Amino acid sequence: MKAWILDHQAPIDEKPLQLVELPDPAPGPRQVRIRVLACGVCRTDVHIAEGDLPLHRSPVILGHEIVGVIDAVGEEVNRWKEGDPVGVTWLGRTCGSCRFCRSGRENYCPEFLATGWDLDGGFAEYTIADADAALALKDVPLPIEELAPLMCPGVAGHCAFRLTGARVGDRLGLYGFGPTADSLLRVARHLGIEVYVSSRSEHNLRRAREHGAAWAGNAAESGMPVTLDASVIFPPAGQLVELALRDVVIGGTLVLAPVAMTPIEIADYSRNLWGRDIRTLYNVNRRDAAELLELAAHVDLALGAEVFAFEDLPEAMIRLRHGQLKAANAVVRIVDR
Ligand SMILES: NC(=O)c1ccc[n+]([C@@H]2O[C@H](COP(=O)([O-])OP(=O)(O)OC[C@H]3O[C@@H](n4cnc5c(N)ncnc54)[C@H](OP(=O)(O)O)[C@@H]3O)[C@@H](O)[C@H]2O)c1
Ligand SMILES: [Zn+2]
Ligand SMILES: [Zn+2]
């Protein structure tokens, strides 16, 4: 098969990925082989390629927004058959037996292995996935290139949403309006939650209003117009934390979505933190991922994708890195042979 591999990290403008020919992989007893149709490009792929995150193995095939069709099934797998359309997220493998796995909190499993970091991912013609890491896509009414962004921004947004504990009638704040926040907004609106969006750029604010935000503006300048039951911060900007807490009601929750953040200072504990909970998004879990895909049958979750040919992956990564995409997401389409 053809695959893009990373064997040493370098600035993305130096195109660290190489297109190589590898033997077609074979699934283990509890695994499936997926013929990849599309794979979304995530900022995390850029972080791994450039060295912001350490290499966990080398070479590695990046890509954790995988959409494809099952092509071979391991002998112990009953759940899947050849031809089933499936997706794979960042959750590549968990141990299945620790106290976190046994209580549906496998995102905290100490043996969590990430797709496209610890395990080979989707920037290849074929990928191997654990049978219980694959998600059924047959009832999700979206084109292939729109399914790929659901696998990371969609699923991560939904996990963040569930961490807020927001319910019908609540007011929810979102700080930063990328594809993850956009997905969360659409689900929250569908569930009867009012959403208040703080972002800086006019195009993000316009998109938030178009998708049903009750208010969109820059809360760093004006504050939020109302007190919120919960908020989520998406960009890795620590200075937003105390700002966001100020507008969360006593008894409310602030969720931090980033995987890394600039330093956080909370200068006035009694006034801005006391009585609120802070939670962080740490990986994704199967229950929330499956729930998002069910919701996708009722909510328009087409988040927008600029499609690139498989051969143009390095260009897609450069454009993503420099904020030059024509849509909210970049997706590499792997044409059927
Ligand atoms: N924890 C996990 O396991 C996990 C899994 C998946 C994703 N994530 C995280 O979820 C987040 C979602 O990413 P995303 O791709 O949807 O969008 P993002 O990178 O968070 O950016 C969203 C928006 O935030 C605004 N922004 C960026 N930098 C800012 C700053 N310094 N101060 C204020 N606003 C800023 C920008 O909008 P404006 O220009 O309009 O301000 C940007 O479009 C990321 O942080 C990602 O790491 C976490
Ligand atoms: Zn991702
Ligand atoms: Zn475990």
Features:
6-stranded parallel sheet; 7-stranded mixed sheet; binds NADP nicotinamide-adenine-dinucleotide phosphate; alpha/beta; Rossmann fold; single chain; Quinone Oxidoreductase, Chain A, domain 1
Task: Explain how this protein is built.
The structure is a single chain. By secondary structure, the chain is α/β, with parallel strands linked by helices. The protein has ten helices and 17 strands. Strands 3, 4, 5, 8, 9, 16 and 17 form a seven-stranded mixed beta sheet that branches. Strands 12-11-10-13-14-15 form a six-stranded parallel beta sheet, with helices on both faces. A two-stranded antiparallel ribbon has the order 1-2. Strand 11, helix 5 and strand 12 form a beta-alpha-beta unit. Helix 3 crosses helix 4 and helix 3 crosses helix 9. The longest helix has 21 residues. Bound molecules: NADP nicotinamide-adenine-dinucleotide phosphate and zinc ion (ZN) (2 copies). One zinc ion binds next to helix 2.
The tally of domains stands at 2
DSSP helix count? Answer: 10
| CATH-derived architecture of the largest domain | Alpha-Beta Complex
Would you report the number of β strands?
17
> Span between N and C termini?
11 Å
Helix content: 25-40%
Give the CATH level 1 class of the largest domain.
Alpha Beta
Mean of pLDDT: 97
What is the CATH topology assignment of the largest domain? Answer: Quinone Oxidoreductase, Chain A, domain 1
* Largest pleated sheet: 7 strands, mixed
Residue fraction in strands: 25-35%
CA radius of gyration: 20 Å
